[in-house]
Design goal:
4 strands
């Protein structure tokens, strides 16, 4: 077993060295793009760089960012998870059922929500790794199942947290206030996102799961032949992605002060866009948490800036789609150049 882990680690180190400079270049490009967006929208509208709008951008990044932090693990393996948006919703509904309908403590509801997400990820991972179904089809099925279950368990109606006002403070409360009489404050949701980013970075770069994550994405067959239990680790990776979706569900529900069973579908696209824009390759084997965080801020900054400029929502979606296509195209060109 020691030789197995050593072989996998050596393979992973080799992959990291091969893509290190390319990843750094991609992160600098993404950060440069973010600065350009901020500069452009600042010049286009005097309301963009106000404190309230900056906080709004950061707050809107939380949910999408946490989803992106989860799905990057799956994409690095060369897979995809289309269910994270509806898993997020299902997790929030389960938290709502636990807290509001059953009258249980908030802490228990949070645990149930996160565990629900992890279980959904486990189901997806099991279908992909053990039953050998394509990730696209497997997670599409889980997406439809969780979407339906959210509607069934909630009775197609939102579940409100009116009797538990402290639940709202999870995202919208503030432990950091400054200015005269605390006039300015940073919502807790932003700190949750940053904490999840640190956790994701530690898992990806400092743990066995992270090492095998890169190894599977770079060459799954070679990793299997080296003695690594690919089935177990891929299942764990999808479960981790689901857990992040569960956390996003709690943050979303606290922000809205309700569990909205009809929400969720479509969030996976913005999360995937954040990951790709941040430099993670869709064919697997490379990716960084910092790049993903920058990508998430690019998506939210772009959306907010267009909104401030009065661009219609349908055109915001079109422009975001174009940015995603451009990011994938640039990644493809970069791959060809490396060859």
């Amino acid at each position: 077993m020691a030789n197995t882990e050593k072989s996998a680690l050596q393979a992973e180190i080799g992959v990291k060295k091969a893509v290190f400079s390319a990843e750094n270049a991609q992160k600098f490009l993404a950060f440069g793009a973010l600065l350009i967006l901020v500069l452009f929208f600042s010049m286009a509208s005097p309301y963009f760089l106000t404190f309230g709008n900056i906080v709004s951008i950061m707050l809107s990044t939380c949910v999408n960012g946490i989803l992106a932090l989860g799905i990057i693990f799956v994409i690095i393996t060369g897979g995809i998870d289309l269910s994270i948006g509806t898993v997020m919703t299902f997790s929030s509904v389960m938290a709502g059922v636990t807290i509001t309908n059953m009258g249980m403590p908030i802490g228990l509801g949070i645990i149930v929500g996160v565990c629900t997400g992890a279980f959904c990820g486990f189901v997806s991972g099991t279908i992909v790794s053990r039953l050998k179904l394509q990730p696209f089809i497997a997670t599409l099925g889980v997406m439809m199942i969780t979407k339906g279950l959210s509607l069934v368990l909630s009775g197609t109606k939102p579940i409100y947290f009116s009797d538990t006002p402290d639940f709202r403070k999870i995202t919208l409360g503030s432990i950091l206030k400054f200015g005269a009489e605390g006039k300015y404050s940073i919502p807790n949701g932003i700190f949750i996102f940053l904490a999840m980013a640190v956790i994701a970075a530690i898992i990806l770069n400092k743990t066995k799961l992270g090492r095998y994550n890169f190894a599977i994405g770079s060459n799954e067959e070679a990793t299997r032949l080296s003695g690594v239990n690919v089935v177990k680790w891929k299942t764990a990776i999808y479960s981790l992605c689901g857990a992040f979706a569960g956390v996003a569900g709690i943050v979303m529900a606290a922000r809205l002060d309700s569990a909205q069973p009809a929400l969720g579908q479509g969030y996976e696209l913005e999360a995937i866009a954040s990951v790709v824009i941040g430099g993670t390759s869709m064919v697997g084997g490379e990716g960084t948490i910092l790049g993903t965080v920058i990508g998430a801020f690019i998506i939210s900054t772009l959306t907010n800036g267009l909104k401030v400029m009065g661009v219609a929502q349908e055109w915001q979606i079109v422009i975001t789609g174009c940015v995603l296509v451009l990011a994938v195209l640039l990644d493809t060109v970069r791959k060809r150049g490396n060859k």
